[in-house]
Amino acid sequence: MTPEVKERIEALINNSTIMVFMKGTKLMPQCGFSNNVVQILNVLGVPFETFDVLSDPDIRQGIKEFSNWPTIPQVYLNGEFLGGSDILIEMYQNGQLQETVEVAMAS
């Protein structure tokens, strides 16, 4: 990953409390896993931003290297990597996600 791509990723992550790197947009997810994440965040009623990795191959590959996580979507909360679709589903089902998000939104 080039320093420029790393800088762009860091800027995207740091400019939003919740940032989702996904296939498609929050209005038009382009894969089931991305859609799962969008639906969970919508149910929680929290504001979040998305970046469509299909629109930028450098970011699509770079985010995987940045997080050392091989799959998309990837969710960042207050600049920290939270996880992908499976982790968000698990956290949502056990109540941990709502608690984690509420703490992040309050800080």
Structural class: alpha+beta
Helix content: 40-55%
Largest sheet: 4 strands, mixed
Query: Number of domains in the coordinates?
Result: 1
CATH superfamily label = Glutaredoxin
Q: In CATH's first tier, which class applies?
A: Alpha Beta
Please tell me what the overall shape is.
globular
CATH architecture designation: 3-Layer(aba) Sandwich
Mean pLDDT: 95
The end-to-end span amounts to 31 Å
Strand content: 15-25%
What's the arrangement of strands in the largest beta sheet? Answer: 2-1-3-4
The third-level CATH topology is: Glutaredoxin
Q: What's the total count of β strands?
A: 4
Polypeptide structure, described:
This protein has 107 residues and is an alpha+beta fold. The protein has a single domain, classed as 3-Layer(aba) Sandwich (Glutaredoxin). Helix content is 52%, strand content 16%. It has 5 helices and 4 strands. Helix 1 packs across helix 3 and helix 2 (32-44) runs parallel beside helix 4. The longest helix is centred in the middle third of the chain and has 13 residues, at 32-44. The protein is globular, with a radius of gyration of 13 Å. The mean pLDDT is 95.
